[in-house]
Design a protein that fits this description.
The protein is α/β, with parallel strands linked by helices. The protein is built from five helices and five strands; from the N terminus they run αβαβαβαββα. It has a single domain, classed as Glutaredoxin. It is about 30% helix and about 15% strand. β2, α3 and β3 form a beta-alpha-beta unit.
C-alpha cells in the first residue's frame, strides 16, 4: 500500500483547517443506483461516513458489505453515529443497478464519480474509506477490512459524533 492514494484524495476530501468551509467532497453530485441515494454528498455533512467502493461479482465486497451492515444495524435506531454509502464501479450504469440490487441493501448506492475515480491509484475492490464528521479522510483500506480494525476506527471517529436520527418514536 502506498501513500499516493490518500495524497490524491486529500485535496478533495480535506477542508481548510483554519476556515469553516465545507469540504469539497460535499459538493460532489451523485448518480443514484438505488432509491436511498441522495443527490449530493452534502446529505452526509456533519456525520461519520464509511464509504465502500464495490464492483459487480466481487465476493469480498459482499463480505465487507455484510460486516458494515451488521455494525450499522448494531447502532441504536434512535441514534445512528455513522452512515454507510456504497460507490460502485466497473460496469455501465444499468449493469451496476442490477448487480447492486442483488446486495438487497438499505445503504445509499451510487456510481463512483469520475472525479474520484481518476484520483484512485488502485481500482481493486473492496476499498473502505472512513471520513470524520468534517469530511476529512481518517483512514482507508484496500481489500477486505477486518472487523477489529473497522471497529477500532469507527469507535474513535464516533466517540464525539452526534446522532443522526433515522427513526422517530411516536408516543
Amino acid at each position: 500500500m502506498t501513500f499516493k492514494q490518500p495524497l490524491l484524495w486529500l485535496p478533495l476530501l480535506v477542508a481548510s483547517f483554519f476556515t469553516h468551509a465545507a469540504s469539497p467532497f460535499y459538493q460532489l453530485e451523485l448518480t443514484a443506483l438505488n432509491k436511498y441515494a441522495p443527490k449530493t454528498m452534502a446529505y452526509y455533512q456533519g456525520q461519520v461516513l464509511a464509504l465502500m467502493l464495490v464492483q459487480p461479482n466481487c465476493g469480498w465486497c459482499k463480505k465487507q458489505h455484510k460486516l458494515l451492515e451488521s455494525l450499522f444495524n448494531a447502532q441504536p435506531i434512535e441514534c445512528r453515529r455513522f452512515s454507510v454509502m456504497m460507490m460502485a464501479t466497473g460496469a455501465e450504469k444499468r449493469q451496476l443497478e442490477r448487480a447492486m440490487a442483488r446486495y438487497q441493501t438499505k445503504f445509499a448506492t451510487v456510481t463512483l464519480p469520475n472525479s474520484l475515480a481518476n484520483s484512485l491509484e488502485s481500482k481493486s475492490t473492496p476499498q473502505v474509506f472512513l471520513l470524520d464528521s468534517n469530511g476529512n479522510l481518517a483512514t482507508y483500506h484496500i481489500g477486505f477490512m477486518p472487523e477489529a480494525a473497522l471497529l477500532a476506527h469507527l469507535q474513535t471517529l464516533t466517540a464525539d459524533a452526534g446522532c443522526r436520527i433515522s427513526a422517530t418514536k411516536i408516543s
